[in-house]
Write a structure and sequence with these properties.
Layout: E1 3-7, E2 10-12, E3 18-25, E4 33-39, E5 46-52, E6 58-60, E7 68-73, E8 78-83, E9 92-99, E10 117-118, E11 122-126
Parallel strand pairs: 2-11
Antiparallel strand pairs: 1-3, 3-8, 4-5, 4-9, 5-6, 7-8, 9-10, 9-11
């Protein structure tokens, strides 16, 4: 069974850092790309960052550019999200996502409906 195990969330002060991890057990399926999305209470799920397994392409939503970095360890089938200079607006439940189907366009990684499997979510709270 496909499983995505997330970890790394927590409570941090504004300006602080966290690193989220998501380890995918995809069985015989091949990881094509992985991404991070977040959802705050009362808000729609929002794209944060995503990357093809090769590292090209890589995408970020504008609000996190320069602060967040997505990376993958292909040997471990794990995606990370390094979050620096966190703001209160970053408070949300963060979900990792796995795409196993081939891409026709790299930009498909920016949209939740192109992913096949999802993690359970990890809470990130940025507050003083």
């Amino acid at each position: 069974q496909v499983q995505l195990a997330e970890s790394g969330g927590g409570l941090v002060q504004p300006g602080g850092s966290l690193r989220l991890s998501c380890a995918a057990s995809s069985g015989t399926l091949t990881t094509v790309g992985m991404g991070w999305f977040r959802q705050a209470p009362g808000k729609e799920r929002e794209f944060v960052a995503a990357m093809h397994r090769s590292g090209d392409p890589t995408y970020y939503t504008d609000s996190v550019k320069g602060r967040f970095t997505i990376s993958m360890d292909n040997a471990k089938n794990t995606v990370y999200l390094q979050m620096n200079r966190l703001k209160s607006e970053d408070t949300a439940t963060y979900y990792c996502a796995l795409r196993v189907a081939p891409l026709t366009l790299g930009t498909q990684l920016k949209y939740d409906y192109y992913y096949n499997f999802w993690g359970q979510g990890t809470q990130v709270t940025v507050s003083s």
